[in-house]
Amino acid sequence: MQDDNLDMEFPFYEDEIPDDYDAIAYIVSKSMEPKIRNGNYLFIKNPPQIDYNTIVIFQVDGAN
User: What InterPro entries does UniProt report for this protein, alphabetically (predicted)?
Assistant: First the structure.
């Protein structure tokens, strides 16, 4: 399913895009509200370590 969306275009102005990110995620659920809302885009940076009390995204067997 994830590979099906590799051609997606994202509607951003250049000044809205961070200089350094590893991936973009489009949120399709309300399960993380109110912190992250349905329809939001996330610019993801893979950190060298994960700290306590932070929001993280995991990928297991190719699925988020």
Answer: LexA/Signal_pep-like_sf, Peptidase_S24_S26A/B/C
Give the model's pLDDT for residue 1: 47
Q: How many domains, the chain?
A: 1
Residues 19-52 pLDDT 10s: 899 888 888 889 888 888 998 888 988 888 988 9
Residue 18 CB contacts under 8 Å (≥ 6 apart), including other chains = 43, 45
Nearest residue to 36 (alpha-carbon basis) of 44, 27, 24: 27
Domain region containing 52? 1-64
